[in-house]
């Protein structure tokens, strides 16, 4: 039943009283028009879900056209954002680094060349490029060989000093240390695929007679494989790197091919191994050991590789919610702004950018949202989403957000299986967020009247499976929002969340994604 004129007047009075009591008050529309009143009623109904009874739920909806607040409930509460933190990291990177920013990887010589002999060290220096593949290290090795170098009398030096040597976020869970989504952060690294999951190797198993065959992508001698698996009637296998080591232990049974992404313990040493192997294949022999160090002043450049620009990297970063990209960009911002490739300097750059865009409450502990000490309010996210709309890089950044219901993996991203066949499909562009007990969805939607809206939905501390359907129902209702036209009550709360795993795809590779 829709509200009468008398009830709307009463609602407006209650709204004024509620607003005076602060942002944590029950959600009341501040605009007494029928469309906004109906929206408030419907969003309140959605959020009355019993799964949220013991949970924390914060929601903010504003008009992107004029900033008007259309709905708010606990929007000023500090909540764990999970990957919604990437909204701040990506936007700050676009501003601080610029869309044309590229990472550079160089091969340098600290000695003199005498014919085919390089008397001195060969240095591999990185600045954080997460897109480097084994084939890129081979291409660098080919350039060294093409320069006429056949023998290096010194050492191979892995230089990752562009960033500091703090590899893991200080709040990250210890049992995530071997997971690809929490790989160590380094200025010199490598990825096994074109999702650019830097600092990881894909370990694959397959039945081989009575035994199990193990392979890696890329092929590398860096990992020590302990294969205790056996062939069986079902695949029930565990592939796990021992903490703080290069040793990967495989146990269980294998009936069919299976792969697992495993982080490496030292990305710079791993990258140097790939490069050294490539040098060997190209006929370049290095007599000395592989060591960590810094390139000396005045070292001559023998080869160079530049990454894709940030404008292109934003797509796999945001569509697939890549944690490692977020942390690398954070340290890259710190290096540019303060000359320090640290989390401290980079997070200050992100926070300063957010506050310059009107964000008042923000506590960032990392760039990806992996930390449970990250704290953001729905109101802060909505303010950021409005504040960046006038930036020259906005359209490129906006295009990097996942698109609801679009099956293309690099368009729909983490929303490709959600809100299909609803008014939100192809309309909602938003960032997902997922940790155990945390889900979030924040972004943009165009209403039925063609009005651009921003929204932030943050749900914390539930004990059920992830209530993403609540997020979807709200987003669908916003796509149907009209200030004047009534919404069909029979369809207004429908959503289309495809059944699937409890966490977003960025946590669940490779099988589920």
Please state the second-level CATH architecture of the largest domain: 3-Layer(aba) Sandwich
Give a count of the beta strands, DSSP E runs of length 2 or more: 23
CATH class of the largest domain: Alpha Beta
Rg over C-alpha atoms, rounded to the nearest angstrom: 26 Å
Q: Indicate the mean pLDDT.
A: 90
Q: In what order do the strands lie side by side in the largest sheet?
A: 2-1-23-22-21
Helix content estimate: 25-40%
**CATH-defined superfamily of the largest domain:** DD-peptidase/beta-lactamase superfamily
Please describe what this structure looks like:
It is a single chain. The protein is of the alpha/beta class and 513 residues long. The protein folds into three domains: 5-98 and 312-507, DD-peptidase/beta-lactamase superfamily (Beta-lactamase, 3-Layer(aba) Sandwich); 104-165 and 267-307, D-tyrosyl-trna(Tyr) Deacylase, Chain: A, CATH 3.50.80.20; 200-261, no CATH class. Helices cover 28% and strands 23% of the residues. The protein has twelve helices and 23 strands. The protein has helices at 5-20, 34-47, 85-96, 134-146, 267-281, 310-319, 323-338, 343-356, 378-387, 394-399, 409-412, 468-480; strands spanning 56-63, 69-73, 104-109, 112-114, 117-119, 122-125, 151-152, 156-159, 200-208, 211-217, 224-227, 230-231, 236-241, 247-254, 258-263, 285-286, 290-292, 300-306, 362-363, 375-376, 429-435, 438-446, 452-460. A five-stranded antiparallel sheet has the order 2-1-23-22-21, sandwiched between helices. A five-stranded mixed sheet has the order 17-8-6-3-18, covered by helices on one side. It has a four-stranded mixed sheet with strand order 4-5-7-16, covered by helices on one side. β13 (236-241) and β14 (247-254) form a beta hairpin. α3 (85-96) crosses α8 (343-356). The longest helix has 16 residues, at 5-20. The chain is globular. The two termini are 42 Å apart.
């Amino acid at each position: 039943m829709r509200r009468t004129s008398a009830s709307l007047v009463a609602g407006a009075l209650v709204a004024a009283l509620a607003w005076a009591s602060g942002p944590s008050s029950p959600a009341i529309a501040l605009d007494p028009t029928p469309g906004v009143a109906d929206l408030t009623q419907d969003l309140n109904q959605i959020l009355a879900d019993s799964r949220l009874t013991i949970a924390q739920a914060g929601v903010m909806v504003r008009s992107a056209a004029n900033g008007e607040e259309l709905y708010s409930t606990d929007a000023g509460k500090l909540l764990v954002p999970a990957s919604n933190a990437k909204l701040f990291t990506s936007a700050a990177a676009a501003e601080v680094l610029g869309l044309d920013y590229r990472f550079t990887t160089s091969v340098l010589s600290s000695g003199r060349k005498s014919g085919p002999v390089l008397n001195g060290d060969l240095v591999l220096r990185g600045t954080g490029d997460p897109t480097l593949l084994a084939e890129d290290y081979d291409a660098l090795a080919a350039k060294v060989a093409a320069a006429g170098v056949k023998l290096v009398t010194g050492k191979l030096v892995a230089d990752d000093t562009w960033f500091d040597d703090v590899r893991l976020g200080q709040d990250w869970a210890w049992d995530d240390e071997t997971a690809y989504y929490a790989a160590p952060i380094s200025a010199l690294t490598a990825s096994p695929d074109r999702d650019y999951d830097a600092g990881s190797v894909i370990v694959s198993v397959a039945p081989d007679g009575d035994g199990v065959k193990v392979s890696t992508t890329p092929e590398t001698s860096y990992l020590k494989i302990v294969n205790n698996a056996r062939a069986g009637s079902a695949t029930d296998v565990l592939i796990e790197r021992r903490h703080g080591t290069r040793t990967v232990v495989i146990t269980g049974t294998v009936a069919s091919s299976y792969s697992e992404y495993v982080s490496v313990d030292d990305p710079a040493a791993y990258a140097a191994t790939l490069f050294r192997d490539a040098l060997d294949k190209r006929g370049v022999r290095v007599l000395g050991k592989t060591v960590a160090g810094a390139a000396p002043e005045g070292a001559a450049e023998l080869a160079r590789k530049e990454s894709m620009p940030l404008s292109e990297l934003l797509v796999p970063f945001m569509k697939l919610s890549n944690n490692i990209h977020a942390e690398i960009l954070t340290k890259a911002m710190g290096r540019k702004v303060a000359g320090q490739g640290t989390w401290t300097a980079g997070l200050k750059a992100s926070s300063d950018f957010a506050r310059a865009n009107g964000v008042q409450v923000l506590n960032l502990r990392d760039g990806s949202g992996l930390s449970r000490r990250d704290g953001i309010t729905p109101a802060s996210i909505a303010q950021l989403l409005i504040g960046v709309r006038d930036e020259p890089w906005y359209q490129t950044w906006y295009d990097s957000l996942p698109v609801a219901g679009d099956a293309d993996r690099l368009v729909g991203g983490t929303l490709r299986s959600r809100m299909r066949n609803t008014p939100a499909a192809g309309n909602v562009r938003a960032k997902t967020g997922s940790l155990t007990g945390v889900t979030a969805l924040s972004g943009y939607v165009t209403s039925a009247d063609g009005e651009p809206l921003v929204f932030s939905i943050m749900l914390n501390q539930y004990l059920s499976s992830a209530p993403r359907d609540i997020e979807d129902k709200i987003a669908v209702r916003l796509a149907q929002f009209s200030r004047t036209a009534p919404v069909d009550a029979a369809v207004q709360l429908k959503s289309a969340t495809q059944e699937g795993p409890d966490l977003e795809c960025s946590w669940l590779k490779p099988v589920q994604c």
